[in-house]
Design brief:
By secondary structure, the protein is α+β, with helices and mostly antiparallel strands. It is 29% helix and 22% strand. The radius of gyration is 61 Å and the shape is rod-shaped. The structure holds 2-acetamido-2-deoxy-beta-D-glucopyranose (12 copies). The site of one 2-acetamido-2-deoxy-beta-D-glucopyranose has 5 residues, from strand 19.
């Protein structure tokens, strides 16, 4: 699923990454080749130029002689005027002109300007007169007629209030420039030539003169100040001239040989009363008198596209486009993400993606499910499922075994929730489960993954399912779909014998009777397993923790995780030593030969445990008491039984019975397996004890051995007997690696 998402993402990235090809624009030429391009700080663009070019043809650098300039001592001169700046696109030239003044009839200056092809720019200039009781005028000759404009400024005695910076008619006046001003003369006049005192802003200022000043000045280049009435600061001020080419209209000029507008330019004579101008066409830039070149709008950012990526430069223009798979014309107005179209596209893409993702997820899930089913099938076969099924179909009624699915058991245990664990041992984990049909079961999950064992598993399940004994935990079914088969047992609700005896509160005669009954029941169950089941079964892990109790304290032998079947023609089989430390048959440990007598030994330990309520092996105790069985046997031998049996359990009534019980335990614990009684004999003897309890008149024989054991009093510590014969406890360290010992310390 993740991979699919990444693929979709990559697709989007690829679409976005498609970008148009871009071209580099050529450098702009401002002058003809071989011509001086600057004078001082001032650039000299064509059609203006200075003299002839330095190229071999020595052609003039200017378009017409009227554009011929001079550069003297870094000062650019156009005739007599100093040029400050030349702009071709605006068709303007900034020049310096002298300020006209009039102080008296002997002290004055009149500025004149022969403009030739140019006009005084109306937009860029103002005509200004500064002075008190003064006026100035601007004269121009046009078609041999003189046109005049001007303004008048007055000051009012000593109460003159003038704001700096405003040319409002008091101390300073200004007028706009009329059209067609060429060949101008500027004159300044005063109404009076006498000296006078003036006060400015209530401060008396002695006007040193009555001079007036008149000039045409570029907007923003002269700001009136009252101090200028005392003394005028500038001898020269800039003004702006509009220039044109030729002296005819566009229409008249285009056919002429000296038509100045080069490629990609057009002719403009709209606001001109004289000549024409050349302008670069839209989308081109540069010098129209040299030829305009295309503007790469995409690169310069002057495009109308949503993004530079969707811009394609064309001659004089550019095109916008949208990446493949998107609609719209790619302009900023519409874009590739124009609302309605884009929404559709987005919805489409989103829907597509969702369908893709959902589809893929479904496919993935189906695949996973199939894989899981296959795996389950594999495990089922591996665990001998088909053998089991075959068996079930051929044998009706004989076995009530049910085959559970993994799903059912997962549900029953809330996906094997840890809080539902009721037991954990060397052989696996037991969960309490609640089946859909309200049955409460114990589900055992094995720890050991032994493939060879799994093959036998089905057979074992079949056999176990046929065990129908009231003191054996009933196997209800199994699940073979998991790697480790799961077993489903009836749920026995009152815990283990181990827990029971170690937590028992009241210690009295009834306590003992219950223990005898439980022992008899457990022995009966084991006897049944050994001799009455269809195939003899050796439990291999007999211990108090594996004897469960139901609500009437009826014993139920459980945990066949380590059980072995004994083929009918064999009485012993070699296996890996397995079991719980403390209960292990030393003979079995030594020889690895498993017989039914190993269970008898372990059961003997259980009997001792019932007598003593001590754990079979405690590392924390002194050496001689560490092994419960050794300690017990020693005490028994020395006639100090009361040293070892649970304090308070023995009384006059049961004294004899406890002795019998102890001797039975001792028999079970014989080192030589063959000398031990069979489980059947043990069961019968225990059953006999129960009956005696119920019917005291059934008297049992008393053998001399017992009498001897009872006679001895209880005093000191019982010394272990032949310790070498109990090597499995003290020789713990010498146990080989292949010996598998589970330390089940109970729960
Ligand atoms: C611009 O200048 C370069 C080098 O000076 C020259 O080769 C080119 O022809 C010029 N272009 C124009 C349009 O004059
Ligand atoms: C410039 O060239 C013209 C002819 O093209 C010539 O008449 C003139 O004398 C030359 N001027 C200079 C300063 O060389
Ligand atoms: C250059 O200017 C100087 C004065 O600054 C003047 O004497 C001279 O004649 C000028 N030359 C030209 C070619 O205008
Ligand atoms: C050239 O101009 C500089 C200042 O701009 C001035 O000092 C110098 O005297 C001038 N030379 C001539 C020959 O006019
Ligand atoms: C010349 O004029 C152009 C355009 O009007 C302007 O950008 C430039 O700053 C001016 N240069 C000077 C030295 O005034
Ligand atoms: C401006 O004066 C010049 C020289 O004095 C003259 O050639 C030109 O015709 C005049 N222009 C106008 C429009 O009168
Ligand atoms: C100007 O003021 C000075 C002193 O304030 C005075 O002496 C003088 O007479 C005044 N002149 C005129 C013409 O008012
Ligand atoms: C100037 O002075 C006069 C009299 O001294 C006074 O009435 C007037 O308010 C003052 N004006 C200003 C602008 O200070
Ligand atoms: C006033 O005029 C005289 C002569 O006209 C001059 O010497 C003096 O410097 C001027 N004073 C001011 C402040 O302009
Ligand atoms: C005139 O005033 C304007 C606005 O206050 C300012 O931008 C400009 O630079 C001033 N010009 C001069 C020559 O002082
Ligand atoms: C006029 O003169 C003043 C004072 O010297 C100066 O600051 C200003 O720049 C001048 N104006 C121009 C346009 O040259
Ligand atoms: C692109 O589409 C918008 C809106 O539909 C429209 O206004 C614009 O003129 C179109 N531009 C081009 C170059 O087609």
């Amino acid at each position: 699923m993740c991979r699919v998402l990444m693929l979709a993402l990559a697709l989007v990235v690829v679409i976005v990454a498609i970008a148009p090809h871009q071209t580099l624009s050529a450098p702009l030429n401002r002058t003809l080749p071989g011509c001086k391009s600057t004078c001082g700080n001032v650039e000299i663009p064509y059609p203006f130029g200075i003299g002839n070019s330095s190229t071999p043809d020595q052609r003039p650098c200017f378009l017409k002689p009227v554009f011929n300039l001079a550069c003297n001592n870094s000062t650019l001169k156009w005739g007599t005027v100093t040029v400050l700046n030349i702009s071709v696109p605006a068709h303007q030239v900034d020049v310096l002109q002298l300020v006209s003044w009039f102080c008296n009839s002997e002290d004055y200056w009149e500025t004149w300007l022969t403009t030739g092809i140019s006009r005084i720019s109306r937009k860029e200039n103002k005509f200004i007169t500064v002075g008190c009781d003064s006026y100035g005028n601007l004269n121009s000759v046009y078609n041999d007629k003189t046109y005049t404009t001007g303004c008048l400024t007055r000051c009012y005695g000593n109460a003159l209030v003038i704001d700096d910076g405003t040319c409002s008619g008091i101390g300073c006046c200004q007028v706009d420039i009329p059209p067609r001003m060429t060949n101008i003369t500027i004159k300044a006049f005063a109404f009076t030539t006498s000296r006078r005192n003036i006060s400015i802003n209530n401060a008396s200022v002695i006007s040193n003169s009555t001079c007036s000043y008149s000039f045409v000045v570029k907007n923003g280049f002269y700001n009136f100040s009252t101090t200028h009435l005392k003394s005028f600061p500038n001898k020269t001020l800039p003004l702006v001239l509009d220039w044109t080419v030729g002296n005819k209209s566009c229409d008249d000029s285009k056919s002429r040989g000296d038509y100045a507008c080069k490629e990609n330019s057009y002719c403009d004579d709209k606001d001109s009363d004289y000549g024409y101008r050349c302008m670069c066409r839209d989308g081109y830039e540069g010098n129209p008198y040299l030829g305009c070149i295309d503007i790469d709008e995409c690169k310069t950012g002057h495009h109308t596209c949503v993004s530079e990526k969707y811009c394609l430069n064309t001659n004089g223009s550019h095109k916008c486009f949208c990446p493949k798979g998107q609609s719209g014309n790619g302009t900023k107005e519409e874009g590739c993400h124009k609302k309605d179209v884009v929404t559709k596209v987005v919805i489409g893409v989103a829907a597509g993606t969702i369908i893709l993702v959902v589809g893929t997820t479904l496919l993935y899930l189906i695949y996973q499910k199939r894989r899981l089913n296959k795996l389950r099938e594999k495990y089922f076969q591996q665990n001998g499922g088909s053998i089991l099924l075959q068996n079930l179909s051929t044998r009706e009624n004989s076995s009530q075994i049910q085959i559970f699915t993994e799903e059912q058991l997962k549900k029953a245990t809330n996906n094997f929730d840890e809080s539902l664990i009721i037991g954990k041992g060397g052989f696996g984990t037991v969960y309490k489960g609640h089946l859909a049909d309200n049955r409460i079961v114990a589900i055992k999950k094995s720890k050991i993954v032994d493939k060879s064992q799994n093959e036998q598993f089905a057979n074992e399940v079949i056999v176990l399912s046929q065990i129908n004994h009231r003191n054996v935990v009933k196997l209800l079914g199994c699940c073979l779909e998991t790697e480790v088969p799961l077993l489903v047992y009836e749920f026995v609700n009152h815990g283990t014998l181990f827990d029971f005896i170690h937590t028992e509160r009241n210690i009295n005669d009834a306590t003992w009777k219950t223990r005898v009954r439980i022992a008899a029941e457990a022995a009966g169950a084991l006897s049944y397993l050994h001799s009455e089941a269809s195939i003899p079964i050796i439990h291999r892990d007999v211990k108090t923790a594996n004897i469960l109790l139901d609500n009437t304290y009826t014993a139920k032998v459980s945990d066949f995780g380590a059980s072995r079947f004994v083929p009918l023609d064999q009485t012993e089989i070699a296996t890996m030593v397995q079991g719980t430390f403390g209960y292990l048959d030393p003979e079995y440990m030594r020889t690895s030969q498993l017989t039914e007598k190993s269970d008898v030994y372990s059961f003997g330990v259980v009997l001792v445990e019932l007598l003593t309520v001590e754990k079979p092996y405690s590392f924390g105790k002194p050496e001689e008491k560490r092994s419960l069985t050794n300690h017990f046997l020693s005490c028994l031998k020395e006639g100090r039984l009361s040293d070892v049996v649970q304090v308070g359990i023995m009384n006059e009534e049961n004294k004899k019975e406890i002795m019998e019980f102890s001797i039975l335990a001792a028999k079970c614990l014989r080192l030589n397996g063959e000398e031990r009684p069979s489980m059947k004999e043990v069961a019968m003897e225990l059953e006999g004890m129960r009956l005696t309890e119920k019917h005291p008149w059934i008297n049992t024989f008393q053998n001399p051995e017992e009498a001897h054991l009872l006679q001895k009093g209880s005093s000191s510590v019982c010394e272990p007997g032949d310790s070498s014969s109990h090597q499995y406890t003290i020789g713990y360290d010498s146990i080989n690696d292949h010996v598998q010992i589970a330390f089940d310390d109970g729960r």
